[in-house]
Amino acid sequence: MTLESSAAASRRVPSDGAVTAPPAELQHERALRRRQRWEHGLLGLAGALLFAFMAAPLVGLFATASWPDFLAGLAHPLVWPELRLSLITTGSSLACVVLLGTPLAWSLARAERGWLRLVETLLQLPIVIPPAVAGIAMLLAFGRRSLLAALYPAGWSLTFTTTAVVLAQIFVSAPFYIQAAVSAFRRIDPHLILVARSFGARPLRVFGRVALPLAAPGLLAGALLSWARALGEFGATLMFAGNLEGRTQTLPLAIYTAMEADLRAAQSLSIVLVLLALVLLVGVRTLLGAFDRTGASR
Predict the structure, then answer these.
(1) More exposed terminus of the chain, fewer Cβ within 10 Å: N or C?
(2) CA–CA separation, 205 vs 201, rounded Å?
(3) In which domain, by residue range, is 155 found?
């Protein structure tokens, strides 16, 4: 038998002329597909286990709360004053972060010196240090026995005041905005900046008329992330500002206090914070998606 005749014999030629693969190759392909499905299923199972673990506390939070209990919890005296205080303090801290952090982020994004890269790294440090450490650090920096205590009027202290709450929120939330703003500014086409400067635009005009509009979606997304972090701040506020009802007791601290007396109030406040965080997260993802589409269209 010649080589050509043996190759022809290894194929099945149906009456319609189509050539099929030999049985050994078909079995190999089927085994390969089964193995691929098994591996995909194994990866999916591993991801599903983590997802189920992450979702279980949230499901428990909502599933164990009836509508009457939720409304009764919202009627607790702790709820509305602390919600008002949280909105005031987080709004104030967000305004400070945006007003001061935007120029700083622009400078870091345009920096070419190595020491400014070190500054950027130090600004991200509050993201990873424990909140209690942040509170102690602020207490030693701004408290009665701090480095700045000699500058305070006699008998006055910054600690255990509403201002201390705002400062604690700024410290823990500013890195989220700065990091997002630096990333947004770096995504701007540098040729646009060069063109604006070639037409004689001053640095402030380039910053206000070119950089800010182009980076606006990223800046807004960073502001929402920063606000969400400030809204959930607990440890640094407790260490530096205390837990004084009506003065320093924000929503997370109110949940901590309500746990001792009324679980329904603590659960209702927790649901409110989760819903606020969900709205903010959806807003951030929407803005970042719009930012990506805008960048791709350019």
Answers:
(1) N
(2) 6
(3) 67-297
